[in-house]
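Data availability (excerpt). The following record was deposited with the supplementary files.
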Amino acid sequence: MQTANQFFHDKVNGYSPNVGLIQHSNNQFLSEASKQLEKHLDSDGNYQDLSRLLNSSSSSAGISGIGENDYASISALPGLQNVPNFASVRRVPLPVELVEQFNHLQYNCLMGLFPEIKRAWLSIDSDIFVWNYEDGSDVAYFDGLSEYIVCVGLVKPKPGIFQDHIKFLLCLATAVDVVLLGVSFSEASRETAGFPYKEMHLQSEPLFVLPLDQQTEITSINGTRNGRIFMTSKSCHLYEIEYRDKAGWFTQQCRIVNHSSSYIYGVTGVYNIFLKIINFFSAEDSMQQIAIDESRNILYTLSKESTIQVYDLGSNGKNISHVATLSRSAILSQASRSARYIDAGNFAPVVYIAAIEKQESLGVQLVAVTKSGVRLYFVVMNPFSDRPSHFRLDHIRMPPGCTPSVPAMQRPNNINLAYYNHGLMLMASSSTDDSDILWFTNPDVFPFMKLLKESQCTTAINGHIWAIDETKDFDQPVNPNLKIIKSDPPAIVSQHAKPLRQFVILGAQGAYLLDSFRPSELLRCILLKCGRVDQEAVQTYFSIDSINALASCLVLACSNRPPDQHVGKLASQAFFCYSDEPRFEFPTNLTTTLAESTNRPGEPIAQSPFQQSPQTNVNQISSPPGLDGSYLSLDRRSKPAEVVQTMPNGNSIQPVQSTATDGVPVMKFSLKHDGMYLYLSRILRPVWNSSLIAEVIGVATKMESQFSSDELLWLCEQVASLKAFIEEHKQLFPVLHTEGSNFLSPSLHHHMLNVIKSQAGARPDPAAPNQQLIQSQLQQRYKADAVATEKRSFENLSSLLTKCIECFSLWSIICNHNFSMVMTNLSKEISDIMIKTKFKDLVLGDGKMTNALIAALIDMYLLDNASTDSITDQLRIKCPSLYSSEDATCSKASKCLVCLLAYEMLHNAKKSTDMKESEMAYRSSLQLFRQVTKHIDVKQICQQYKEVFFFEGVIELALTAAKADDIKEYALNFYKNGDPPNDNIGREAFAKRSHYYKCIVDSLDYLMNAAASDASRSPLGSVSSKRTNTDLDTLTVNEAETMMEKVLSYSFASGDELIHVTLYDWLIANNLHDRLLEVSSVYLETYLKRATTSQSSNLVAMDLLWKYYEKNNKYQSAALILSKLAERTSTDITLQKRVEYLSRAIISAKSASFPGASGNDGDFLHELEEKLEVARIQSKIHDAIVLLQQEKGHLQEYTEALRDLNGGIFDISTLYKEFASNFDLAECKLAILHTAGHNDVNLIESVWKDIIDYEISRSRMLSDGGKMSTIFNRLAEIGSLYVHSEQYFPLLYILTLLEKRSCELNWDPRLTYETLLRLDISRTTTLAAYNLLFRSRDPFWQAVKKPLHLFSVIHYLITSSIEANDVSPADMRDFCIFALSCVDSYLVELESMSLSSIAVQNMISRYRSLKAQLSHLT
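Predicted structure:
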């Protein structure tokens, strides 16, 4: 029993003696090989950033390009006169159908390139044609414009805006508008799978058409990777096309924003005034180009008059602000101060700008090219900030031909077009009317220089060049993509892993495809041209830099491409031909080297402008004579030699230090040795010092691989190719020819020093034997010793290659499985170590980590013999030294023992009466059952655990079994892909997982039923020591609820997404919505979103989703869901509920708002408020129709209208036409007119008349007193909504209408003006309205025979006002003054009437009395 327990403990912690316990005896050899490898890694890492190559200084701009060695030509070297300027040049003519289109040209013709999709384009007037420039095929066109095209651009769309098949947007600018077309592609076939953009399709209908102002003419279009679209115009404005997935109720889906006239610069108007001043004093200017630095999110613009502007797009790339502007005069001023002896005309005008991204330089951000070919490098950031803050000229690079020895006619001039990227520069110079000259500079041939040095060449191009760009090649080998901590190394370091750089030159004759030279391509060209390796051109190539030349040989020799077979054989020959032999050298201060005095093959044979300081042979060994006479210390020449003494049996002891002045010979490895290690270091550079694992924080922290399986397989193939090269040519590597001892004895070494001292003029030892004999012996022994040392180093290299291949294979196998699940099988100790483990640690380690990984991988298969056989076979084949056949046999036998032991523990636990002991036994049985789920009845064991209330065991065993039956997570893919009907494997896996999950759900059902009843009987009782009830036969309600909560919490702590989904379903089915919202899980949001999209009628899920967002402070998302719920077309949601949703949405949107929030958020809030206003009107209409239904009966039209109003939210026009107007709902009409801002005076007055008449008709059954009270209360209620809006509350009209109705119906004459006063209309305003009514002399009063009605009402108004207590003294005085003037006119009118009428006489008397009162008050 103890043996089995110990086995189990070892197994789960990854230390099982049955899994991968091979201890490698060659760890020391791997360590020595790694030292060699890392020295070359360090050597390759000693390259300069572009700012260092330019010798940048913060004080003033530097200058280069005027020295004799700043530029060099390949053709100037011996034997290379006939080497072409480019690795390959291919011309592809224009498609025949396009040539014919030139005959139809009337106004305008443009050409350009879309290198992202390998297309060229041609616009002729209003038509545009796009074709594949690689072969002239796949011609697409669009002829749906009426105006001729002035500018064209291709940009990536924002994600999630358009349908998935639209990969790009084609932007066509005309004189009057900008048109956005969708661009899609046919699916790539198996033959074209490497490049996804095969057959192109232009959408027949534009996505958007945006009108332009009359003065706006677009000059350039460019976009960012995140989908932003920028444009410049002739008026020196920067525009952006803003677009989103849908339009708001009152906002556009797509619009053009002028960033040059907005407030985003911080100082209102100052920037525009500055531009206007510049343009006023300069010639007519216009923006011509946009350059975007995607790595830093910076945008640059260039104008026709050489003004360059810098814009900051923000750290997230979603904002924009102006940073700085540098005018032509400012550029000339800065350049002239640093280059006083150079004609300032060379520094202007600027014809081209290019952003320099982080990958190329951390210290320089922009390069500009002038018409004379001068490059101006600029800095816009300081070293302590990641955002642009200023704009300064940093360096001036003169073009080729500016040295005094070169005639002026041999330098660039009249540059009209240029292209720059990652150090390579192409410039088009107009020489004649029928041809252009293409200038090309390339620093790749001169790596590891302290100052910038470039090769240069020129090529004549027939016709005028319209565009230059670089192909963005998608068909490239997978290469690990590491986080960049410094600029990219020279091309020679990564030439084996990156595709050849290809440039496209587009002209009227067609497209020229130019492949640039890198060192390996140059060698390829030379070898194929010469056909032999002993030619002068080959010798010249190896004279430049021998060790890098040998590394380039290996690039070609190890290539697996079929076209490289012939050149690979030549490269292999050159690798060995131009190498040398290992040897010991004595210090130069004593004598010359003891080796042969002739030049080493591969050392410089001639000085030339192409020559640089050769890279140091980094691996040198110097050693004092040990007891066994060996010499094995490895170090650089420039440092004290680290001496490793090696015993004859190969074991090494601790290193010691020695210097060359001690007379100790220095070991120099052969060039082929150094070239081999250098090439391997370049293959492993991306991973050697990189962590293999990254932690992903979620519900539970997961470990993910930093590298994909494809990346690892690519690296494995490269290392395997190098190993195959060594195996194929092993006969050419060092072989020890001497027998017996291969090492010098101390006495021989002492005699050798005497010989050297004698030759150097020192006094020799008289006791020394014959010097010539000793010298001959020592030369032979030193040579044999050097060969033996290098042989051992190659053996170490072979071991390192094998270990790297197996580690890559193992890691790739793990990545092909569920990586994070494999990592969960590791112990906590191993996991903590693994997170910090680098690839070199895995290779050089003692096997503990690889053994643990293999054990964790096999644990996933859980004793499934077929599956285990497949993985063990794979491990044995690909990782034979890490996993052997014996390991596989042991792992199978161990599982059988675990299965038997688990059943025994479960049986004993049920018999035990000690609860603590039983619980421990159950837990132990659980741990064992988890290892053998394939061989047990999981459901039956879970039932036993449930009977004893061991629900933790139910959960763990069910989840483990589900994982074991679906290692590759087919079920999860099936679920995430929407249950596809043709995925039978996924459906089966999902059913199996559901079977295991039902064990947990059954436990929850059991506990829920127990909680709903008084008690639940258990046949065995609980083994939990935490139970408060001592009666083991019963389970109380509180205990059931507590246990149910623990089951939920424990299950939700799992990283299994599908158990989360299962439990979410259970909670919703049992109406436990509040408990569901308490779950803290990344899966809950995904679940609710999926439920709302897959089941459009699932209102419960949508309701839960907005509550989830609100609970987690995601107010903007909550507002979006609430808005969708309110707008949803469904009779399941009442109109009242929709209003509540919108009200809640507004609260959430306001909670999400903050200072500096984007304009889109503000638009959304405004849109919600407008929707709510409309919804309230719709609710008002609903209530009005309900009232009609009560008054007139349940007519079908009322029923249908109410159903429609509850079914969704209508727009305001529909509400007016279909409901308010159709049912004569005057009050609703007025609300709609007010909301819509519709100011039709006649219509508004008509609506008020209908309102008043309707209220009068409604109250006809009431008594006179009740009728008047009801009518005027309703009018006061309605009027209070509009009284402050003069347009929608026509006071004079309403007053006139009410007084007429009052006169006709004999109402109390005071009710009208009292109603107006209740609406907070001032007494003065009310009197003024009555005065206007009086002066209108309406014949109505005479017609109804009540000519004194208005006199009576006005008298009541004035009298009640002067008696009122709620008027301030100042207002009362103003009122009395105005009233007194009115009373005089009324008296005049009364006195003109028939004085015989008693009523008139009484009215005159009343007004005279009133006048006296007013006079007294004023």
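Summary of structural features: The two ends are 116 Å apart (CA to CA).
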